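Note to self: keep these together.
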Amino acid sequence: MIFQPILKSYNNSSDYHKIDLSTQYLENLKIDIENQSDLKRYIQNQLQISKRKIAFGGYLEKRSLYNHKGLFQNQNKQRNIHLGIDFWADAGEEILNPFDAEVHSFADNQEFGNYGPCIILKHNENKKVFYSLYGHLSLQSLKGLKNGQYIKKNSVFCKLGSTDENGGYVPHLHFQIIKNISDYKGDYPGVCHTLDLEYYKANTMNPEVFLGL
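Structure:
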C-alpha cells in the first residue's frame, strides 16, 4: 500500500515509528502506562532511539492502560484489547482525512477515559462502504460540523485535543476502521474484552494497512 499521511505536519512514512504499549512488554520494562509522565518518557525515548518523529501502534494490543478506568469494566469483564491505532502527537496537531468521506456522526464523549470529542466518517471506496473513527480531538473540531457534510481526501477536518478535553489522556489520535457501524452515533467501542475479540476482529480492519504504514 502507498503511504497515506494522517497527521498534516508529518507527511513522510519515515517520520513514523511503531511502538509497543502491550501489558507484557511494558511490565518487563517496569513502565506504568497509567502514569502519564512514565508514558511520555517512554514515547520520547523510543523516538530518540529510532530518530523518528511520531510514535504509533496498538491494533489488537492488550493494554493495562484501561484497568483502573470504570468505563472499561462491565460485570467483571475487563475491556483491555485495543481496536484501533494511536498516533502520539501534540495537542493542536491537524488531522487529515485519508479518504473521500461524508460526516456520519460526532459527539463529545465526556466520561473520564472515553474519547472526548469524536468524529466518525463514512466512506464509499469502489462501492465498498466502511467507517473511520477519530477520537481524543479538540472541542473546537466539532464546531460547525454537520452530518452528511462532505470531507475531501487529504483535507484537514479536525485537531488533536489536550488532556483536559480528550478524556484525560496524553494527547494522541485514536484512529479506527469499522465495517458495520450498526446504530452507533459519535461513538464505537475502541477497546474490547477477550471474549468479544473475534467479533470485533471481524468488524474492524488494521488501520496500518490502509495508511501504508
